[in-house]
Amino acid sequence: MDVGNKIQLIDRLRLGFAVSVAKGVTLMVRWLGLGAASVLPGSIARRIEPRLLGLLSQQVKNGVILIAGTNGKTTTALLLCTILERQGYRIAHNSTGANLENGLMTALIENADLVGRLNVDYAILEVDENIVSKVLKPLKPRIILCLNLFRDQLDRYGEVDSISKRWTEVISTLPLETVVIPNADDPTLSYLGQQLPQRVLFFGMNEPEQYLEAIPHAVDSIYCPRCGYSLDYEGVYLSHLGDFSCPQCGFSKSKPQLESREWSQILVGLYNKYNTLAAVTGALELGVDRAIIQETIENFQAAFGRAEDLVVNNQRVRILLSKNPVGTNETIRVVTQSNDSTTLLVLNDRTPDGTDVSWIWDVDTEKLVERGGTLVVSGDRVYDMALRLRYSEKSSDSKVNLIIEEDLRRAMAIALKHTPNNETLHILPTYSAMLEVREILTGRKIL
């Protein structure tokens, strides 16, 4: 055996050993009822074979589809995965939302055999926006969906401009055949797409009737990414996403690939129209039949915690993940547009949430308080959220019934008790709180 073949054999043996050990860990974790084993197997396999992410992803037959952004990754990935599966493709997907490096590896390991052979047509991987620059080269994605960039966990990530700059630098080094699909309505991403040498397809809204009455407090990119001058907005759909142009240098919104009115949206909330358009643009690029796409949209079921509807003791419950200013403003919009009178807000400050909860002061909680009804507050930072809601009251004769309960299980029981039988209880939790809420409601852990 020559030296080259011997090295390849050693590599294959190491990869197979890493995958086998990871699969053993998965079985053990699930057998002991410790969770879904969506991170630990990848962490252990990575120690055995540091190149595991690249070695597995290069085996994907038709390529990797990477989905990045602050909000909407899990929902968009699940929609695109469902579309491709209905077309008959076999998909590897990090469906639990574990979107750091170990989670990506675990998702690929899940679909590999005991010797590390991967037999899938596509890998759809949602990726945390802060690690995109780390994983692009080993993954070598065929398509990159760039959903949006908002402030999120400032204690970890910093401002959106720094993230965008890193994305542009690393994406521009990828092969020219890579297809990049950015959000045209996000000035930062629209500009990013205009600078890339690769093939770029934009998605976005062209429905002025959906404009907000005013630009909300939680905006991040209202200045021109090219020259720094204040952008002129014809209107905004949510946060800083809208129809814009720069009066100073001429930079303007890129033209979306699709007419947004032609496509219905999945789930509730305008933010899910963006998720729909992103997934549809990707699916059409891959040649999926339009009828299959439309049928999937009409029958789509939410990912856990993302506009997920449950029935608990004959009581309807809707979980709306609310982890940053923009996302929470949009979930509040969903609540205030309903006729339901009871809302549970759960604020945690654990590592998955970000330890800095000052973002709640950028949320338009005034709209939630103005409509009245019952607001139940819980979580690790229950008093921070309660204070924010109190400051949202414009007068001492507020119609809101604010209930503070530190214990989440009791808070949920109180909220359900205050929800009329013909209404839905809306729960707005941060990420770790959402996992707790679902475990209490369903009796099952997710991670």
From TrEMBL:
Record-given protein name:
Lipid II isoglutaminyl synthase (glutamine-hydrolyzing) subunit MurT
Residue ranges annotated for the Lipid II isoglutaminyl synthase (glutamine-hydrolyzing) subunit MurT C-terminal domain, each copy included:
321-434
Q: Which gene encodes it?
A: murT
The biological processes this protein is annotated with in GO are: cell wall organization; peptidoglycan biosynthetic process; regulation of cell shape
- Lineage of source species: Bacteria, Bacillati, Cyanobacteriota, Cyanophyceae, Nostocales
Task: Provide the GO MF annotations for this entry.
Answer: ATP binding; carbon-nitrogen ligase activity on lipid II; tetrahydrofolylpolyglutamate synthase activity; zinc ion binding
Q: Where does the signal peptide begin and end?
A: none
Question: So what family is this one in?
Answer: Belongs to the MurCDEF family. MurT subfamily.
Function according to Swiss-Prot or TrEMBL: The lipid II isoglutaminyl synthase complex catalyzes the formation of alpha-D-isoglutamine in the cell wall lipid II stem peptide. The MurT subunit catalyzes the ATP-dependent amidation of D-glutamate residue of lipid II, converting it to an isoglutamine residue.
